Amino acid sequence: MAGSTYGNIFKITTWGESHGKALGVVIDGCPAGLSLSEEDIQEYLDRRKPGKSKISTPRKEDDACEILSGVFEGKTTGTPISIMVPNTSQRSGDYSEIASYYRPGHADYTFDQKYGFRDYRGGGRSSGRETIGRVAAGAIACKLLKEMGITVMAYTKSIGPVETDPAKFDRDAILSTPTAMPDTEASARAEEYLAEKMMEKDSVGGTMECIVEGMPIGIGDPVFEKLDANLSKAIMSIGAVKAVEIGDGTAVSKTVGSKNNDAFCMEDGKVSKKTNHAGGILGGMSDGSPILIRAHVKPTPSIFRTQETVNRNGEEIEIAIKGRHDPIIVPRAVVVMESMVAITLLDALMVNMSARMDSLIEFYR
Ligand SMILES: Cc1cc2nc3c(=O)[nH]c(=O)nc-3n(C[C@H](O)[C@H](O)[C@H](O)COP(=O)(O)O)c2cc1C
């Protein structure tokens, strides 16, 4: 199976299945000398782990990480960093039925057709648990970016019909509300809506937004390595993400050039933009404004309602999924989005170091 490795210089390989012994990541290309502890990584993993509130699956996972290599006396050594998270809450019995049929909205059917064989326990490699490796690597990427003055912040923008109000934006609420919304009032309404849908044995979709501040100008390359293209790929690779928008996103198709163009101006002796419809990227390169990205996430495919499907013998059947599933994926996926954005930006920053003769000369002479 190809495709478990991502990045050019800061390169990650995630490994493991949801019901195997452990999951994790190997990170190659992390510079030597970064202070790094298991606590740094755990802080991010805890934002992703289930069982923290009534809108999250009751499946309790410790998701405790262990750094196996690449760190000595509290600092990265420049060698591959291997991070492992043991699976402690596997209940394969919950999933044994899935072996015989295809769950709607899941990768069961496509996996079977492609490989002729699949680890059916909780989705195997297609499980949301695969994202543990991404988040562990993301924690390191975020730490490196912070050292360069770059911050990456993702949060829940909407859940079903409930939207956060930008006027009530409270950064601390992202970490304190069970929805990961930056607006406590909207979060309470979203919880009510989720409780309603859970009673109806249904699930809900939503959107997440990510803001990057402090990004230098000119990161990303025109043509195939455009920053917006690479960010879109990184975010679309997260399970259940169905659309990605940069800046004004899909709204640009309904506007006019005179409104959509961001006028340039001078601010404190530097070129700046009066607006940021472009979302901080022009021609595939960062333009110095904050980078704004949104991702649209589908409702959790595993619902407890009766659904129609087909079994491996080609018979039409009705199923009611058991097990432990979130009624919404978004609150646990925001830190995955933050991680994938950070990994992509850090890699692009490293690639950019060889873009100009003068930078090479400055570095080596
Ligand atoms: C963090 C995270 C947690 C997830 N948890 C669940 C879950 O509990 N139940 C479920 O049915 N799907 C869950 N998913 C979504 C499925 O993994 C995904 O929808 C499925 O593999 C099909 O892939 P696709 O939606 O990208 O086509 C989760 C995804 C993420 C990113």
Short key terms for the protein model shown above:
globular; 365 residues; five-stranded antiparallel beta sheet; 9 helices; alpha+beta; Chorismate synthase, AroC fold; binds flavin mononucleotide
User: How many strands?
Assistant: 18
* SSE arrangement, N to C: EEEHEEEEHHEEHHEHEHEEEEEEEHH
CATH superfamily: Chorismate synthase AroC
Percent strand equals 15-25%
Question: Secondary-structure blueprint of this entry?
Answer:
Elements lengths: L4 E2 L4 E6 L5 E7 L9 H11 L17 E4 L1 E2 L2 E2 L4 E6 L21 H8 L15 H17 L3 E9 L2 E2 L9 H4 L7 H16 L6 E8 L13 H10 L4 E6 L10 H4 L3 E4 L2 E4 L7 E2 L2 E2 L4 E7 L8 E5 L5 E5 L9 H23 L4 H8 L1
Antiparallel strand pairs: 1-2, 2-3, 3-7, 4-7, 5-6, 8-9, 8-10, 10-16, 11-16, 12-13, 14-15, 17-18
The structure holds flavin mononucleotide.
